[in-house]
Every structure is written in C-alpha cells, then in structure tokens.
Amino acid sequence: MRVSIAKPFIGEEEKKAVLEVLDSRMLAQGEKVKKLEQEFAKLCGAKNAVAVSNGTAALHACLHAVGVKAGDEVITTPFSFVATANAILMMGAKPVFVDVDEKSFNIDASKIEEKVTPRTRAIIPVDLYGLPHDYDKLKKIADKHGLYIVEDACQAVNASLDGVKAGCLGDIAAFSLYATKNIVSGEGGMVTTDNPKFAEKVKRFRHHGQDEKDRYIYHELGYNYRMTDLQAAIALCQLAKVEDFTAQRIRNAKKLSAGLKGLKGVVLPVVSNNACHVFHQYTIKVGGKMKRDELAKKLDDNEIGTGIFYPKPLHLHPHLAKFGYKAGDFPVAEKLCSQVLSLPVHPLVSSDDIDRIIEVVRNA
Ligand SMILES: *Cc1c(COP(=O)(O)O)cnc(C)c1O
Fold first, then answer.
1. First CA to last CA across the chain, in angstroms?
2. In the prediction, which pLDDT does 347 show?
3. Which pLDDT does position 287 carry in this prediction?
4. Contact assessment for residue 363 and residue 267, using Cβ atoms and an 8 Å cutoff
5. Which atom of ligand 1 is nearest to the CA of 57?
6. Cα(304) to centroid(ligand 1), Å
7. CB within 8 A of 238, min separation 6: which ones?
8. CB burial class (10 A; 0-12, 13-18, 19+) of residue 179?
9. For residue 310, cis peptide bond before it (omega within 30 degrees of 0)
10. Which among 153, 172, 163 is positioned nearest to 61, based on CA atoms?
11. In angstroms, what is the span from residue 310 Cα to ligand 1's centroid?
C-alpha cells in the first residue's frame, strides 16, 4: 500500500463527536470551541487560547493584536508557507525577509539586527517542520529594539524549547489545525498568548469588532474568523491524542535517522538537546536539485510519497519579489529549496513502512 506524506488519524471518537454536535443543532461557535480553548491553553501552558477559522486568520489576528499598522515593517523568513508573509500584507505592512540558518531551517538571528529600522514592529519566526525557533537570541533582539515576537507555530503544536512549549515562545502565537497538520480539525486555527489584552483583541477581530458580551457594538474593523463547534469537536478529540501522535512522530523520526545515518550526500535533521522537535515534517537535505528530484521519483516509483517544503523561497515569487527582492538575496533559503525532501513520518506510517523507506533511499 502507498505510504502518503500526510494522512490524518481519524478515529471513532472524532466521528461520534461530530454527530453529537449535529444532533445538538448548535453548529456555530459555542461550548465546544470554549472547551477547546481551555484545553489548548493548558497544553501550551499559555494563559489564553482563542480559536479561529484557520492558521492564516490566526496570524492575521496576532499581527492585529500587537498593533501592526499599514506602513510598518515585519521581519520574517523567506523559507515558509506563503501565509506567513500574506498575514503581513493583510495588515498593509511590508514583509522584510531575513535568511535562515542552514541546520535549523529557522530564521538566522544573527542576520536580523541589520534589517531593523524605525518602522520595524514585529518579528515572525516560524517553527518550521515542528522545530522551535531560536527564542533566546530573538528575545534579546526584540527587547533591545522594542519589537514583538509573533510565533508562527502552525507546524509545531506540542513542540518545546527548554521545557517551554511552542505557543509561548514569543508575545503571541498562531497555530493551524489544517487537515495535514499534527492535530487537525479540517480547517482551523488557534492563537495563544499570556497577554489578556491581546487575547481580547483577537476575540474582537474574529467577530467583526464586537465584544462577546455586547453584540452589535462594533469597536473596530474585524472579520468573520470564527471556528465552528463541528471543528472544535474534532480538534478536542485530536488534542486528547496529541501526546501519542507526538511520540509516534518522534519515534518514526528516530528510526528514519538511525537507518539513514552515514549515507553520502544526505544530511539528516539535527535537533539540539534543549529542543523537542515534533516532526511535522522529517526533512533531509539531498545534494543538488537533480539528485533530490531523482530520489523523490525513485520513492514515488516505490509507492512512497514525499514532499518539498518549499520548492521556491517566498522572495522569488512575483507576488513578493515586487518589494525589491531578487535571486541571490537569501542564498541559504535558495539553496535549501533545491535540496530539501520530506519523508513520511506521521503516526500512520508503520515500522515496516519506515524499513521500506530506508531501503529505497539506501538503494538509490
Ligand atoms: C499551515 C501553515 C500556515 C497556515 O495555516 P492555514 O490553516 O492553512 O491557514 C501558516 N504558516 C505555516 C508555517 C504553515 O505551515
């Protein structure tokens, strides 16, 4: 049977929970969303969690909460999904890219300060593939220049650094519960923050600028970014299994690394001792685009799905290049785009599947 790069684990609990919500006839945001917010905050160790309709909406709401305005600059990585940069554009602000570190795939803290200007308002580090960003270094820079850290933790639910969970590695954080993420609700997003004012702002933002208690009073521009109880019911079931899911991903990653060790031309993911990497993706580097694409084809021929996250850095898409970016601006991100290959690591990948992946890669 084909091993796919992503497959959500849906059990009887999820099915039953959805039917219960349907039977209740309370389909929109309600008690399930409230319960999810409480449980999610608990998981992250955050004082507040607010559910929204998707991870992009979560990022948008985070930037609104910290007060990013039109004309501001927000520093982020060019080696991410486009939503990270789009959230900045949605505020009328300018994405200012900084290259990434070759080993961690995350924003290179040593290159941030040269990009800070009087207009810089925030930094969005991305916990890419499930590995937390370089928090200590970023925090120093943010404090020195009065910047907010908006953590894009969309791929990093349950990850941690020095025992601090993703979602708490900045002033405010965005998660995604999209169908391929580590826990899913179909479409869905969460915002976590210790700052009660930020949480209130996010709640208004998802509800057309209204406070939950007095409706039809519009304080500011907001959107319809609410989550439904149908989605929250699924997410609650997933949340109950998150420790199992995480352990299975880490176990699969360890097995892959043990089996692929010492292969010439293949660089395995590295995890420092103080980080818990939750392996949203298990991503290797393969020397050269041609070799990478050949290996992907070989795996595909053997019924093993792979993924390339991402084939092109954000600054080279016309959509973002128009801010004055060109090839050569971020050499590390550009090189990684030609080398990275993600292998199946999710909880439905069996031990036998892993053996087969290792065998195919080794033979190639
Ligand atoms: C998935 C993802 C998003 C967007 O989440 P959606 O729920 O798809 O809107 C943002 N940033 C990163 C890094 C992601 O992986």
1. 20
2. 97
3. 86
4. no
5. 9
6. 24
7. 14, 177, 183, 184, 185, 245
8. middle
9. yes
10. 172
11. 13
Pick the closest to residue 72 from 88, 57, 60, 85 (CA basis): 88
Using CA atoms, how far residue 326 sits from 33, 106, 111, in Å, is: 43, 20, 18
Ligand 1: centre distance to CA 216 (Å): 31
Stretches where the chain sits below pLDDT 50 are none
pLDDT score recorded for residue 175: 98
CB 2 within 8 A of CB 304: yes
Q: Give yes or no for a contact between 183 and 238, defined as CB atoms under 8 angstroms apart.
A: yes
- The dihedral region occupied by 247, where left means phi > 0, alpha psi between -120 and 50, and beta the remainder, is alpha
Element (H, E) at 174: strand 172-176
Residue pair 65/193 in contact (Cβ under 8 Å)? The answer is yes
Ligand 1-lining residues (CB < 6 angstroms): 54-56, 80-81, 83-84, 126, 152, 154-155, 176, 178, 189
The amino acid present at 42, given as its one-letter code, is: K
Measured CA to CA, the distance from residue 33 to residue 137 in angstroms comes to 35
| Ligand 1 centroid from CA 335, angstroms | 22
pLDDT value for 212: 86
pLDDT at residue 1 in the model: 85
Nearest ligand 1 atom to the CA of 189 is 7
For residue 161, what is the enclosing H or E element? strand 160-161
Look at residue 21 in the predicted model and tell me its pLDDT. 98
pLDDT at 29: 96
Nearest CA among 132, 76, 81 for reference residue 104? 132
Residues 6+ apart with CB under 8 A from 20: 233
Distance CA 335, CA 313 (A): 9
Tell me the C-alpha distance between 207 and 64, whole Å. Answer: 13
Q: Please, what's the largest Cα pairwise distance for the chain?
A: 65
